[in-house]
Amino acid sequence: MTLSLLRLETVRMLRDPKYLALAVAAPIGFYLLFATLFGGGPTPPGELPGTIEIMVAMAAYGAIWAVLSTTGPRIAEERQTEWLQQLRSMPISAGTVLGSKVVASVLTALPAIVLVCLTAALAKGVTLTAGQWIALVIALWLGSTTFAALGIAIGFLVGSDVAYPLSYGLYMAMSALGGLWVPPAILPTGLSDVALWMPTYRLATLGWEIAGGKLPDLTSIAILVAWTAGLAGVAFLAYRRPRIRRHRIRRPRASQTPVVVVPAPDRLAR
C-alpha cells in the first residue's frame, strides 16, 4: 500500500503542467539566458566560472519550486476536495500519507536538478569530475527537503485559493534574498546580511562549494537543518490544528438554575 501510494503521488506530481513549466522548463530557460549574458566573462581568481555558478543557482531554483509547488498548493487543494479525509478512512496511517507526499515531492526535485546540469554540460561546456557531479546532485536534492516542510505548513494553514500565490510569493522572495538571482555581495548591507541566513542561499552554497572542489560548509548544513526542524515543527502544528480545536470544544455546561420540583397535590378525600 505504501509503495502504491508513493507511486500515485509521484506520477500525479510529474504530470502537473505547472510543475513541468515552472520547475523544469523555466530554470533551463533562465540558465541559458543568464549564462549567455553573464557567463562568458573572465573568471577572477578563487571564484567559479559564471556558467557553473549560474548552473548551481538555477538547479537550486528549480528544485525548490518542484518541492514547494507539489506540497503546499496540492495539500490545500486536497483538503478542500476532502481527498485527505478519504485517505484517512482507509487503512493508512497519517504518517504514511504525509511521508509519501514528502518523498514524492523531493523525488520531483531530481529531474529539475539533473536537467539543468545536463543543459549546462551540453550547451555551455561545463565540466566537473564524476564525483563532483554526483555530490552536487545529491546535496541539492537532499537540501530541498527543507522546502517540503515549508510546503506542508502552507498546505495545512491556508486554503487552496491562497496556497498557490503564497507559495510562489515566498519562493520568489527567498530566491531573490538568497542570491539565486543576483550574488548577495551586490545587495545592500542589510539584505546581504539577511541572505546569509536564508535556506535558499545555504542550499546554493553547498552546490557552489562542491563545484569548486571544496567540502560542504558545516555552517550551511547546520542552518539548513535548523530551518528544516523549525518548519517541520510548524507543519506538525498546522496538521494537528483541527484536532486541537476539536479537543478544545467543550460541551455546553448544564444549567446551574435550581430546579424546583412541585409535588402533585394529594387527591382530596371525599
If you had to describe this structure to a student in words, what would you say it looks like?
- Helix content is 73%, strand content 0%.
- The model is unreliable at 246-251 (pLDDT under 50).
- It is globular, with a radius of gyration of 26 Å.
- It starts with a helix and ends in a 22-residue tail after the last helix.
- The longest helix is centred in the last third of the chain and has 31 residues, at 218-248.
- Helix 3 packs parallel to helix 8, helix 3 packs across helix 11 (199-211) and helix 4 (72-80) packs antiparallel against helix 9 (160-177).
- It has one domain.
- The chain is mainly alpha-helical and 270 residues long.
Tags for this entry?
Nod_factor_ABC_transporter, 270 residues, globular, transmembrane helix, 0% strand, single chain, ABC transporter permease, mainly alpha, ABC_2_transport
Secondary-structure map:
Blueprint lengths: L1 H13 L2 H22 L11 H20 L2 H9 L2 H6 L5 H30 L6 H14 L1 H13 L2 H18 L11 H7 L3 H13 L6 H31 L22
Helix pairs in contact: 1-6, 2-3, 2-6, 3-6, 3-8, 3-9, 3-11, 4-8, 4-9, 6-7, 6-8, 7-11, 8-12, 11-12
Structural class: mainly alpha
The percent range for helix content is over 70%
The end-to-end span amounts to 82 Å
Mean pLDDT reading: 82
The structural domain count equals 1
Q: What is the gyration radius calculated from CA atoms?
A: 26 Å
Per the principal axes of the C-alpha atoms, what is the gross shape? globular
How many strand elements? 0
Q: What is the element string, with H for helices and E for strands? A: HHHHHHHHHHHH
Number of helices: 12
Largest sheet data? none
Strand content: under 5%
Low-confidence stretches: 246-251
